[in-house]
Amino acid sequence: MGDRHRCGRRSPERQPGRFPPRQPQHGDRCTVTDARSFTDHVLVTSKQNGGQARSTGVTGAIDWTPDAKLRLGMDGGMYRLMLATPDFAGMVRQDDIAGYLNLRAAYRAGHDDVSLDAHVQSATIAPLGRRGATSSVNLTWKRALTGTLSLTVNASDILDGSKRTYWTDTGTFRQAGFDHFVARRVYVGFVKRMD
């Protein structure tokens, strides 16, 4: 894979209701990129080692319990990404700002527990291209039927946000498209606790 190194600074221990910012820094001296070429009118794709990647940013998290029934929380980060990737005509340098955000909430009332979580990832650069933003929203409802038996309904990716677009622009190849890993699901099940 090549020579890899990582540097960073440890953050203070996280405490409930606190927002401890972190400033992670990462670097790779030899990243894995997509290599594409045409041979006898056939597109050949493979992976190759090459280029460099650097990122630096800040992350933080907060949790809040306004009362015994409700729990709220969020965490997120923003970072700057710098890529240097070899191309047909030479090294291509890219620079961009990206980020992510996670939100969560849980509510308990009587025999019912409801939880909601959401994730958003911004668009970002990729070697010799870009990747589009993605998101997901998940909902879970749990109902206690007896002291040891419960009904659970879980809905994943309610808004179908897992579709991700991509663009590739090299000296010899241009491509645009999307990946759509359908993650939208509804699960219904029973959980039996064995005492």
From TrEMBL:
Q: Which residues form the Outer membrane protein beta-barrel domain?
A: 36-189
Q: Where is the composition biased (Basic and acidic residues)?
A: 1-16
Q: Which InterPro entries match?
A: OMP_b-brl_3
Q: What is this protein called?
A: Outer membrane protein beta-barrel domain-containing protein
Q: Which species is the source of this protein? A: Pseudoduganella umbonata
Give the start-end ranges of region Disordered: 1-30
| Organism domain of life | Bacteria
